[in-house]
Amino acid sequence: MMTTMTENTAVRRAKRSWPAKYKLQILNEIDTAKATEEPGAVGEILRRENLYSSLISEWRNQRDTGALAGLGNKGGRPPVDPTRAELARLRKELQRSQTELNTADELIEAQGKVSALLQTLFRKSADQNSTS
């Protein structure tokens, strides 16, 4: 059985939603219009944007309680700051370079000790050969 839509059928309109940035922009525009005290300026904005004054009151309450500040943030991981990423890379490279430098210093010190030991042994050997 096929049903048809009649004139009496109510069409339900989808609930509209606005991003926090838009809400704050409209609230700032309305506040500016109120400050100019130009008659009908706020009503003009509401008509242009197809908004109701009750909605503006709700948005003001959200703004005043700080709810709009949190709505502006998108979910998920925050974007990586390229400066911080570069700093982390440079710190890691510096740590690796310092480790290599410490290893090189230890090797140089060990080579100096070996050289001094060999020189001492060579002198003893030379002294023994010259006295014999």
How would you describe what is shown here?
The structure is a single chain. The chain is mostly helical. The protein has five helices and no strands. It has two domains: 20-71, no CATH class; 84-132. It has helices at residues 20-36, 41-49, 53-65, 67-71, 82-131. The chain starts with 19 loop residues before the first helix and ends with a helix. The relative contact order is 0.06.
Produce the secondary structure layout:
Elements: H1 20-36, H2 41-49, H3 53-65, H4 67-71, H5 82-131
Quick rundown:
It contains 5 helices and no strands. The protein is mainly α and 132 residues long.
Helix content: over 70%
Number of helices: 5
Report on the biggest sheet.
none
Tell me the count of domains.
Answer: 2
Q: Return the structural class.
A: mainly alpha
Globally, the shape reads rod-shaped
| Rg value | 39 Å
**Mean pLDDT score:** 83
Quaternary state of the chains: single chain
Give the low-pLDDT segments: none
Distance between the termini: 127 Å
Strand content: under 5%
- The succession of helices and strands, N to C, reads HHHHH
Instruction: Give the total of beta strands.
Output: 0
